[in-house]
Amino acid sequence: MSFHKLYFLFVFFVGATAFGQTKPNATPYTNEATYEKLKKKHPFITPLNRTVPPNIGIDKDVEYTNIHGLSLKADIYYPLDKSKKYPAVALVHGGGWISGSKENEKYMAQELAAKGYVAIAVGYRLSEVAKYPAAIDDVKNAIKYLKKNKKKYSLNTKKIGILGESAGAQIATLVGVKSKGKIKAIVNVDGIVSFIHPEAEESTYASYWLAGDRNVNLKNWTDASPLEFVDKNTPPTLFINSSQPRFHAGRDDMMKILKSYNIFTEYHEIKDTPHSFWSAEPWFTETLDLTLQFLDKNLK
Question: What is the three-class DSSP state of 290?
Answer without folding.
Answer: helix
